[in-house]
Design goal:
Shape of chain A: globular
Number of strands of chain B: 7
Keywords (chain A): Signal, Transport
Structural class of chain B: mainly alpha
Family (chain A): Belongs to the bacterial solute-binding protein 3 family.
Domain Solute-binding protein family 3/N-terminal (chain A): 32-261
CATH superfamily of the largest domain in chain A: Periplasmic binding protein-like II
Shape of chain B: globular
Protein name (chain A): General L-amino acid-binding periplasmic protein AapJ
Number of helices of chain B: 13
Radius of gyration of chain B: 29 Å
Strand content of chain A: 15-25%
CATH topology of the largest domain in chain A: D-Maltodextrin-Binding Protein, domain 2
Oligomer: heterodimer
Number of strands of chain A: 14
Order of helices and strands of chain A: HHEEEHEHEHEEEEHEHEHEEEHHHHH
Strand order of the largest sheet of chain A: 10-9-11-8-12
Largest sheet of chain B: 3 strands, antiparallel
Signal peptide (chain A): 1-21
Number of helices of chain A: 13
Amino acid sequence: MKFLRNGAAIALAFAPVSGFADTLEDVQARGQLLCGVNTGLSGFSFTDADGNWTGFDVDMCRAVAAAVLGDADAVEYIPLTGKTRFTALSSGEIDFLSRNTTWTYSRDSDLAANFVGTSYYDGQGFLTRAELGVSSVMDLDGATICIKTGTTTELTLSEFFRSNGMTYEPVPIESDSEAQQQYNAKSCDVFTADASALAANRASFADPDAHVILPEIISKEPLGPAVRHGDDRWHDIVGWTLNALIAAEELGITSENARTLGDTTNSPEIKRLLGVDGDLGAMNGLSATWAQDAIAAVGNYGEIFDRHLGTDTVIGLERGLNAQWFNGGLQYAPPFR
Amino acid sequence: MTMNSTPTESPDAFRVSQLLSDTRYRAKTLQTIAGVLIMLFLGWLAANTLSNLNTLGKPLSFSFLGDKAGYDINQRLIPYTAEDTHLRAALTGLMNTLVVAVLGCLTATILGLFIGIARLSPNAGLARLARVYVEIFRNVPLLLWLLLIFALLTETLPAPDAFRGEDPSATLIFSDSVAVTNRGVFVPSISFNQPRFGWLLLGLIAGLSVLAGLLRSAAKRHQSKTGRPVALGLPILATWALSLMALVYWAGPTVSYPELRGFNFRDGIHLRTSLVALWLALALYTAAFIAEIVRAGITAVNKGQKEAAAALGLRGGQTMRLVVLPQALRVIIPPLISNYLNLTKNSSLAIAVGYMDLTGTLMGITLNQTGRELETVLLGMSFYLAVSISISLVLNWYNARVQLRER
């Protein structure tokens, strides 16, 4: 990753300024979307047994590729660690970042990243071995804690322990796989990360039942895709692709009926969204069927969630905050009009 | 050769074409042109970087160094909390870099010296063993050694858990004073009741060093006058030992032993696995190179010197210590300097094992939390440059001292 960082610095020195101007044109000219994803986190982005990238964040890349290029497979995945992701984004190495990344004020303003929305509402949790008999985060005084560096959890952890008058020994870690190795070797008592990531990690352990996720969630971690500052149209495209997936669930559009529903339905919003009526796509320089292509390729938000993270998967996460607004959750897409 | 312009007309007249045609000027002309081109290129690079940063909305600024860092660092040699600034975090990281560099250089030198001598041993088994060591460590990338050592330490050593309970599977060693765990080695620490113990210790060391120096030069004068050596080693050693012991006793030492409390061992000094792994990897790897340098240095000493020493009746060890090594040093020191520099710079692999050195703090977490890639990398580079140049200066001074003075 040091190479990457230097690479970014070199890119800043040599690359012409215009290279960042219009991401949509760049992507279309290239015929491929460069998508920054996690190096490996089951459920969110990992390579399956056949070597294909798969997961919740990966489907976001596929949806954007389908909307922009009409082909969900026209994606080159760039695996990034917590430390390299923003450099990769700001230097133009990737078109957008879809890597369980928390939306915060300073990242949005100072790091020159623009978050387009929240694809997953998360919070920081603690994973520990059941045999330690810890039932609350407040019992963790003096514990050794594995923590991924360059994350918001790193800062939250420090603040949480300090404000509660507790001490801890941080063990800085670069990736989830490294964290698993350290945690399983008992180099650390606790592994802290976003609760979803902890569930994903626990699911890949040999005996998941020997580990518990503590009840306290100590932070808000809204995870979402991010684009570079300075390209509003691209920001709109990625953001509204996410909204289209969320709206599709609300409107009952699925990967199966996305191609046909537009002709049979009476709902004007469905017709607009699927490009049967009006031309929303042209407003962003996309084809009329951009949302239809995206939904047909990856399914609606609920389908994506169930496929990768839901209760039927090994990760087994409830929808919780990520249910639709009418089901008591927070996922709420603005109207397509 | 016919001359169209008569030289007598204007012998010193300078024509512009001479800049290229005349060998007196040509070199300077070309150097000037090359210099200007390089400056232009660098200027363009800098200007383009700055304008790109401005386009990104991130103009070059070091003001982030004064902001609150917000993250914790596990190994702190200077007081640091998450409330301190990014600059303080960078300095904490720099201290960690220096510590592992100093430990690594010392260990690598001692190890390298012995292996280098062993390479030349008349004992074929020992020589071959040393050779195998050199080839194995020299020919595998340092990062792989580092990861291997770290994995071995974390996977094979017992966790603090193993020390718990009625019948623990692991116990402290050295009469219950040292705990070797996969989170690091916990050794007893000594603290003193006298608040100014550190200064007194420094004063004592300085005083004794001066005294020893004076005694040595007196002994030398005596030897050159009478030809008889004065055996000073033992008395000096005894003085050191006695006065240090007296000072320590007077200062009232308190030893605190590591003790398993809660999740971890508390008290004592905690040498983290990351430090131990990095230290070992750097030392073992660099020792292989130093061994070769030492071997080369010893081989460079004329065989006649050894034979002369033997003829004078010096024993093997004495020959090595008094005759061969002092001369070999002249060959050894210059390449040794560059190995020390390599080791210091290689310590930036620390992040692979989560050791919070300068790369991990300033060019790692600070970079990531503030998004100041260029600034942190530039700053990190200048820190390493400053450290490396300091090492070079000190060792070059030492090198100049041991060089043969030609008369």
